[in-house]
């Protein structure tokens, strides 16, 4: 029996795609292994949000090829969609398959095509046999399958996450939206994910029920721009409406959201989160900068005052909620004054953690063409300062929760005398003793 190993890079949407791809490969009869050295096929699902993400993928390819020269290495994901030729030139890569054709991977690997005339049922076969298919096929050191990501529709959704491994049963990620209509000047994601498209509400309910029946107690709803869910559907739907249906029509015990843009943090939505103990009080709201001048250059639609109103609304209605943000430092033209404005802005808001990113010019984005770059050493210093600020915010929030008894879901990480668990408001805690993953425990918060 042929074996496969998958390695994931990037965001929660990529994680959901990876899990769904794993499930599809298992359905074709391949066996999963936990070590790339033992795999006949190695799939790398890549990220391209920064140049560092690209470098990590290239490094992983070279390492796997060195450890397992006979493996067929399949590279997919956002990097594969953006620069397939670049990846195809790396020794060891057999196939590069963009996001536009990611759902083809199980058929290509197994040799079972969309058309019954495809050769090789159950065996590997060269992609030259696909030359007559309506796919973009380029030849080079590796075979490349890519297409127009903006032509993708709902049918490209890979389905529900795998539930065959313990990590998939604990807090599975369910992608209900993909793509983005925004055009932030620094962001390459719309170019590799395409236009915004949503899973219809009935399908969302069906997949939530499936995951619950497989043992999931918490599900994380994810999307590239999750708050835009349903705007492309006919009839139009909303994230709030589908959440209400999940609460009313499924037995899911806890729902959590991935990142949501500031415009979608409305009083109605925050009140909805607070209305049910089955919704985790956790908001991740991208900020990027606290300087209005830099926000304009980034093509972000809001200004700092608008953003602050939404964060304060969350804290007012949900005093114990976790509130996180993404911040970019070193955007072209960011002065010391712009950075100080951002740092001061963050210090005044009730964040509980930050994700700090150093600006990385992405090919094809307007920001990559901007003059006045910030010196790399200065970028590192600014990032270090914001991470220190984040640590202080995290400690202050945790201190405010000391003595609280919170429900926490055990994770698959433990030692002899404790098990790690996650609370609804996104605190990592250690439960005394060794417990199975995916179990609710009551945790008294301590520092």
Folded structure, characterized:
By secondary structure, the protein is an alpha/beta fold. Among the domains are: 3-147, 3-Layer(aba) Sandwich (Rossmann fold); 405-444. The protein has helices spanning 12-27, 51-67, 78-82, 84-88, 105-110, 166-169, 189-193, 201-213, 239-249, 267-274, 292-298, 304-317, 336-347, 376-401, and strands at 3-8, 31-32, 41-46, 72-77, 93-98, 136-138, 143-146, 173-178, 197-198, 218-223, 254-257, 282-284, 322-329, 353-358, 405-415, 418-423, 428-432, 440-444. The protein has a seven-stranded mixed sheet with strand order 2-1-3-4-5-7-6, with helices on both faces. A four-stranded mixed sheet has the order 9-8-10-11. Strands 17-16-15-18 form a four-stranded antiparallel sheet, with no helix packed on it. Helix 13 links the parallel strand 13 and strand 14. It is globular and about 55 Å long.
